[in-house]
Amino acid sequence: MTEHVDVTALSTLREVMDGEYPRLLEVFIKDSDDRVRELNRLVLAPGFRPMSVDALRQLGMMAHSFKGSSGNMGATRLCELCRELEDAGRGSAPVSDDDVQRMVAAIEAEFRIVRAFFDQELHACLSGH
Amino acid sequence: MAVSAAERLTVLIADDNASDRMLLSAIVSRQGHDVLAASDGAEAVGLFERRRPQLVLMDAMMPVMDGFEAARRIKELAGESLVPIIFLTSLTEGEDLARCLDAGGDDFVAKPYNQIVLAAKINAMNRLRLLQETVLQQRDMITRHHKYLLNEQRVAKAVFDQVAHSGCLSAPNIRYLQSPYALFNGDLLLAAWAPSGNMHLLLGDFTGHGLPAAVGAMPLAEVFYGMTAKGYGLPETLREMNAKLKRILPVDMFCCAALICVNFKQQLVEVWNGGLPDAYLLHGDGRPHTPLVSTHVPLGVLSAGSFDDNTQVYPFGAGDRVFLLSDGVVDSTDESGELFGARRLQNVLVTNRNPALLIEEVQWALARFRGQARDDVSMVEVAYTEPDLLGPPSVIYTDSGDSSPLDWGASFEFRASTLKRFNPLPYLLQLLQEVHGLRLQSSELYIVLSELYSNALEHGVLGLNSALKRDAEGFGLYYTLRAERLDALQDGFIRIDFQVTPAGSGGRLTISVQDSGAGFDACHVLSLPPAVNQLSGRGLSLVKQLSDRCQWTDGGRTASVEFAWEGLA
After folding, report:
1. Strands B312-315 and B408-415
2. Which of B16, B22, B112 sits opposite A9 (nearest CB)?
3. What does the alpha-carbon distance between residue B54 and residue B32 come to, in Å, rounded to a whole number?
4. Residue B535: is its pLDDT beyond 70?
5. For residue B476, is pLDDT > 90?
6. Architecture in CATH for domain B408-565
7. Is B90 an 8 Å CB contact of chain A?
8. What is the ipTM of this complex?
9. d(CA B130, CA B430)
10. Hey, is the C-beta of A14 within 8 angstroms of any chain B C-beta?
11. Which residue of A has its CA nearest to B21?
């Protein structure tokens, strides 16, 4: 699990947040759910292909934001995937629409794993663990 | 790690990520600070305006208004206070990080958040913030003090102008140049009429700058004007001024000064120079100028016993001028530090063709020589004028004259040792001025009394021959002899008698002056041609001219004069 979530970082979070730790988990899970939904919507919308520069930039900015919050939560692999999408959105190297779609799918998949872990964590806290 | 109450800050956090916002708030709260949270740039600016936090943690990329724009606006709102802005960023490109600082950010911190780094950066930024606060407070304090200082000087100048206004610097025979700031450079220029019709002029230069230099000028001016108005001569006035300054000024402060007395009627000028640069006697007949060198210690240094009030006397007639200057003239330097000096000044004096332009020519020479102007350049030029052209001297009285004595007599006898060191004329004149009706004639009274007294002293008691005063050399000899004989005087007296009696609605004053000398043939002197009589005679025709009746009895040893006045409205 450590390749998906840095448990040391998580324990620091738990210490810092103290009584607010469960709430932090809740907020992250909900926000990230929304974010992944938004990423998918953009990439799977009709008229998405061919992808415009603007749309790409928008994707990149969302990825940037997601990168930040997932990094703070210790979800290192998710953070890295978001960084890749952010770079693509910056337009420094040419990237195909297929690649973009693949990256979004990868982010969604990774998040599903991370989300499951955090759900478990949340459940453990709320039951007084 | 909690902070003490004194360091508890209000920190504004702006991040569009809810979980990041929560985490950061928790971190900063645990460090003991109060947290304000915003989720976009516009909200951040609004919160800043309302709550005025001391420090801002700003996410660079935010919707509505991004971090850079928000940072710019917050810096603007902060004005001259320093509100540190720390950018929160997971940007890694150097360009992006530089952009944070260019936008007005003071530092940046990377995501994921490290609470130790954050704490260190917050503390460092806070130190900078406090430094700026201190600087602004001190700047404001300095501005306030500067204003007080200027105000003090303004008030001092206003008071001084009241003291100095009664002078006669605007007389037609005086030309002068003085900066408006001269007072605060210690430069002082005063001129006043004496009751005798003589003109006294003082050029002074106090040590120091600002108020300390100005503050000595006021008591000095009071003494100068007071004593001159009462009819005292240069020596007494000098002694008083020196004593006053010695008493009131601190040990390291003094006043370099030159004092002159111009006697238009007798065509001479009396000079005392203590510490100022050489003044110059400029001759109207083309002779080279005579330097009036400083031969005395400045005022306020020596005690009364050591003070030397000896003056130099020179002939002073049509076309002659005295030129006095402060050391700002000769001490002016150019960029290489060379002094303007006395030689360059003398050059201007020698090459000057139009007397009216002398002061301007000195100014031009100074301007050509050095770059910037100095505030302590003071120059004054006093020219000889025919007495009739000067107009009546204005002397000021301060009492109402209600208690005026109208029927009385008084006699005085001044004997040898008193004659040596005491000038009774000012006291006698003061006494006579108690008679209100005599005040309009105080100038004539003083002249006549001075003439009779000086005749009684110099020709009567000391036995000096007025024929000596024929030329410049003779002048010098005459006054040297006068000093010697006065010093050696053992016997002799002068008696003065006043009788004031009412006459009709006015009154009559009779003055008698008697000396212990050998007497002289008054009729003979009075019959001499006027030119001879006035300069080297006993000024007898002047006495005759100014008084109502006069006669000489007792072989010329006693002179009596009368003055009358009508009743006043």
Report:
1. unpaired
2. B112
3. 14
4. no
5. no
6. 2-Layer Sandwich (3.30)
7. yes
8. 0.91
9. 70
10. no
11. A69
Q: How far is A3 from chain B (nearest CA, A)?
A: 17
Topology match between the domains B166-390 and B408-565: no
Top CATH class of B5-136 equals alpha beta
Look at the block and give the residue holding tokens 């408006």: B180
End-to-end CA distance of chain B: 96
CB contact under 8 A, A68 and B113: no
Pairing state between β B558-565 and B279-282: unpaired
Residue-level pLDDT at B511 = 95
Q: Are B36 and B8 in contact (CB under 8 A)?
A: no
Q: Is A61 on the interface with B (CB under 8 A)?
A: yes
Q: What is the CATH number of domain A7-126?
A: 1.20.120.160
> pLDDT class for B131, splitting at 50, 70, 90?
very high
Is the confidence at residue B289, as pLDDT, over 80? yes
Q: Give A12's contacts in chain B (Cβ within 8 Å).
A: 115
Indicate the class that CATH gives domain B166-390.
Answer: alpha beta
Lookup result for tokens 């759910």? A33
Q: How far is CA B389 from CA B171, B262, B319, B392, in A?
A: 11, 15, 14, 9
Å between A60 CA and nearest CA of chain B: 11
Indicate if the pLDDT at residue A50 is higher than 80. no
Looking at the predicted structure, is the pLDDT value of residue B158 above 90? no
How many angstroms separate the CA atoms of B67 and B14, rounded? Answer: 8
Question: Considering Cα of B135, then B137, then B140, then B141, what sign does the dihedral take?
Answer: negative
Residue B252: pLDDT over 50: yes
**CA separation for the pair B244, B239 (Å, rounded):** 9
B19–A27 CB contact, under 8 Å: yes
pTM comes to: 0.62
Q: Where are the domains of chain B?
A: 5-136, 166-390, 408-565
Q: Is the pLDDT of residue B243 over 90?
A: yes
Dihedral (C-alpha) B170, B173, B178, B183: value to the nearest 10 degrees? Answer: -60
